[in-house]
């Protein structure tokens, strides 16, 4: 058995990341200066996947523009709309049945960031006789996840978001299924109390009906990037584990600038006077930095200009302007934002134009 097909998620509203996700699909948010979903695609390709099917919200166009047809990775990518509104993770898979057919497949929630060897897990599944493999990770609070239930070290059930988890394991958003089994089980489950077809219901059905369900614990890092702090943590860990060769300098650097550690500078970017950068840091194309301190663990999107600020442990999206003496840390700043000094001297109060659910700590 070989896994050549994968379903990746590209839909949803990501309300926990408002206001950033009111104007950008969550899966396009940058981690280590590349869209989040690219990391999932790369993991799938490394594991041997040749065809990927991505679900989208109705009317979505940006995701398709960014990702393309898969030629960049030497594979085929197709998109399908999530019709009928949000009805649960299992429903996403059901809608891809016409693409999957009777083949085994990988299902990967694209907002899951994994630092570890997915190919090893896939290869092990393909050599087994299992109908399904669940990838597990230990978490501080399992109440927000599907949780495996063990009895005498044997997996006997999976429960969705339990109030009192029986252990601290979470079923991650990485699943492997053998031929035909998923869609047979889907026809047997019902919607949960919250009106969704839960993926945990599929796995519970498997375990109660003598299907062979294996499990594998991730030994590296795994994170479900549901909130801003999760994105920042994932960004930091991705930057830290990347090699020196992933941080080329294609920009112009003033001789007075101090650069230490792993620092990528994009084409057309200019690092001016009195700039200090402590890697790991990634600076996109056509950026301007002057009289500022950047890093560690910072990514700056293309076309952004920074003057006078001190920024660390943060993600800045493209085409923004920061032109004020300010310390910024643990922050996620959206596209085209402006932080500027008032022209007529010091302000007695701050003047702001903020979107819904903006968070500012001052």
UniProtKB/TrEMBL annotation:
Keywords: Transferase. It comes from the Bacteria. InterPro entries: Hexapep_transf_CS, NTP_transferase_dom, Nucleotide-diphossugar_trans. Residues 5-240 form the Nucleotidyl transferase domain. This is Glucose-1-phosphate thymidyltransferase. GO terms for molecular function: transferase activity. Gene3D superfamilies: Hexapeptide repeat proteins, Spore Coat Polysaccharide Biosynthesis Protein SpsA, Chain A.
